Amino acid sequence: MPKPFTPKVLTANALLEGDVIYRTAAAGWTRDLSQAEILTDEADAELQLIEASAEVATVVGAYLADVKVADGKAQPAHFREAFRAKGPSNYAHGKQEQF
Amino acid sequence: MYHYTDFDDAFLKERNAQFRAQVERRIDGALTEDEFKPLRLMNGLYLQLHAYMLRVAIPYGTLNSRQMHKLAEIADKWDKGYGHFTTRQNIQYNWPQLRDVPDMLDALAEVDMHAIQTSGNTIRNVTADHFAGAAGDEIADPRPVAELIRQWSTDHPEFQFLPRKFKVAVTGSPNDRAVTKAHDIGLRMVKRDGEAGYEVIVGGGLGRTPMIGKVLRDFLPQAELLPYLEAIVSVYNLLGRRDNKYKARIKITVHENGIEDIRVRVEERFALIRESFGGVDQQMLARIEADFATPAFKTASEAPYHNAYQHDPLFRSWADTNVAAHRADGYGIVSISLKAHGATPGDASSAQMRLMADLAKRYGHDELRISHEQNVILPHVHRGDLPSVYAALKAAGLGTANIGLISDIIACPGMDYCALATARSIPIAQEIALRFDELKLEHDVGPLKIKISGCINACGHHHVGHIGILGLDRAGVENYQITLGGDGTEDATIGERAGPGFSAEQIVPAIERIVLAYLDLRTEPAETFLQTYRRLGLAPFKAALYPEAQANAA
Ligand code: SF4
Questions:
Q1: Å between B478 CA and nearest CA of chain A
Q2: Which of B152, B165, B159, B198 is nearest to B59 (CA)?
Q3: Which residues contact B79 (CB under 8 A, 6 or more apart)?
Q4: Domain B127-290 architecture
């Protein structure tokens, strides 16, 4: 049996700054994971991934990342995504400066 | 030190202009990421977890004050005011923006520096003993030959697409501080019947399949070095596996074909190409050697040193731990620790870089070195100046007296920065250092090298740490595996796995158990951790690490 599709967000790095970014429901990008669109349909997620990957002048390395959902907002499912969403642990650099 | 010629300048200018145009075409969308990626990697630009990362080569770890000042300026202008010195004697900037990178490269070019071949399947930055030209135990300064190798390998047309990356290390001392046996090629300067030459070691490497290098030639006359190196790399270029990334390093080529077979092929190739060098390389070497002339050492009073040594216990501790024997009378080699307890190993702020540059200029014959252990060296300081140097370092948070001790930890960037990581390294290093500082044990424990990698690629050299720590992802949780008894010196040894790994919360107490066990087990304070380990083996340390298993078996 194929594995059931678990909730995901579409994520990438911004071309110019390298920042971690997430796809929003308005088909734009946010730097804040909690603002990301939660994708629950596999076909839709794959389509969005293809579309986002075509934005070559904006994003790099788009992929789908697993998330947990709490109060309708995405939270990282894996510690790697938690670091991407927050920034490094040795300095308050990266996103933790902004959010 | 070596200064760029007009040829070098012109080459670099052209490369930087090319890259600038490539960045522009990437930004306006004319190049896709697939097209751009190999181009940026050729210029040392990675995309990591949170940002781009620019890796700048510091050839054989040697810098002058002007270069260090430029590194500080770049950190302030285009990064977050600091840089990270790596185990390959490079510096990495963790937060550059794509648009700024061409300007950063131009700034580097102003001081004869670049980021070429700090990535990709090429011959990477040649590393050397960080005490080169200063060490008391040295046969000869390895840097001229390292520079010769740098010139030969930079943009070498035959070796831009090797099966995999290729690392060369050189040492001029019998005490190997350059980990030559863990490199694709390791060169040790040796003398035979008064003639200078090299022991050529091949096929060492850490990573997924750690191997200690094997001797390919026990004595290679000095003048034959470049054609011989070229023969090795071209044999590897043809024979090395390109079907499987994990089997592509020369260590696997040597392992699969046998050292004998490789030797025959290399000697055949060598015989063929040797004449074509026609001695040009030796003329080049002679010119380079002039650039590495011994500084004019001074004769001065050592009274300030003796005075401070007698009256200031902090200075004494620092001098005992961080100053090594110099070959010139009255001089010492200063290791500046970038491992203040709780700090990120290898990081220096721009202010610290400037201070170190100024100290080098004022007291150190304008020389600085980066060590593979992620510290900064002032190779030539007169002992009479040591108290002034120490006072300035201390005021800048650079006076930690811990070189070679348990808190002088190598840690790769790990999952705080590196896109390949499976777990974090930095916080583990920070916690271990803080814990042993709190216990006030580290000087009692004595020489002990802890090395931490955030994934199997082993940039943190964990296999050759007396205590090695490897961070892994076990079912979505960070897990740390311990190896014991590794050694990166001339007696290079790969550490043994101690047993099941530990969680992030358990790893520091686990390290503490090992160290306390050592204190119990050593015959006398002079017996180092490594000596005790070699005498007793893994068993007693394993018992200390896994007390439950012990209790269950009883
Ligand atoms: S060892 Fe792994 S995590 Fe550490 S720097 Fe190397 S590739 Fe990155």
A1: 8
A2: B152
A3: B93, B94, B95, B96
A4: 2-Layer Sandwich (3.30)
Residue numbers in B near A89 (CB within 8 A): 416, 424, 426-427
| Architecture of the domain defined by B413-553 | 2-Layer Sandwich (3.30)
Q: Does B49 touch chain A (CB under 8 A)?
A: yes
How far is Cα B336 from Cα B379, in angstroms, rounded to an integer?
Answer: 10
- Please give the residue of chain B at the shortest CA–CA distance from A21: B50
Structural tokens at position B278: 């026609």
Q: CA-to-CA distance for B53 and B46, rounded, in angstroms?
A: 5
Give me the residues of A, 64-83, that contact B with CB < 8 A.
77-80, 83
User: Shortest CB distance from A13 goes to which of B47, B427, B477?
Assistant: B47
User: How many Å apart are CA A91 and CA B14, to the nearest integer?
Assistant: 37
- Could you give the CA distance from residue B142 to residue B136 in angstroms, rounded to a whole number? 14
Helix (H, G, I), strand (E, B) or coil at B526: coil
CATH number for the region B6-61+69-109 comes to 3.30.70
State the DSSP string of B254-287.
HHHH-HHHHHHHHHHHHHHHHHHHTTHHHHHHHH
Q: Which helix (H) or strand (E) holds B206?
A: none
| Burial of B267 (C-beta count, 10 Å sphere; 0-12/13-18/19+) | middle
The pTM assigned to this predicted structure is: 0.96
Pair type for strands B168-171 and B185-192: parallel
- Alpha carbon distance B380, B500 (integer Å): 45
Locate the domains of chain B by residue range. 6-61+69-109, 127-290, 309-395, 413-553
Minimal C-alpha gap between A42 and chain B (Å): 22
Classify domain B309-395 at the CATH class level: alpha beta
Q: Any alpha helices (H) in B174-224, and if so which ranges? A: none
* Cβ B240 vs Cβ B163: under 8 Å: yes
**Going residue by residue through chain B (554 aa), what tens digit of pLDDT does each one get?**
888 999 999 999 999 999 999 999 999 999 999 999 999 999 999 999 999 999 999 999 999 999 999 999 999 999 999 999 999 999 999 999 999 999 999 999 999 999 999 999 999 999 999 999 999 899 999 999 999 999 999 999 999 999 999 999 999 999 999 999 999 999 999 999 999 999 999 999 999 999 999 999 999 999 999 999 999 999 999 999 999 999 999 999 999 999 999 999 999 999 999 999 888 889 999 999 999 999 999 999 999 999 999 999 999 999 999 999 999 999 999 999 999 999 999 999 999 999 999 999 999 999 999 999 999 999 999 999 999 999 999 999 999 999 999 999 999 999 999 999 999 999 999 999 999 999 999 999 999 999 999 999 999 999 999 999 999 999 999 999 999 999 999 999 999 999 999 999 999 999 999 999 999 999 999 999 999 999 999 999 999 999 987 666 65
B109/B231 Cα distance (integer angstroms) = 31
Q: Residue B96: CB partners within 8 Å, gap ≥ 6?
A: B45, B51, B52, B53, B54, B78, B79, B104
Looking only at the bridges linking them, the beta strands covering A29-30 and A20-23 are antiparallel
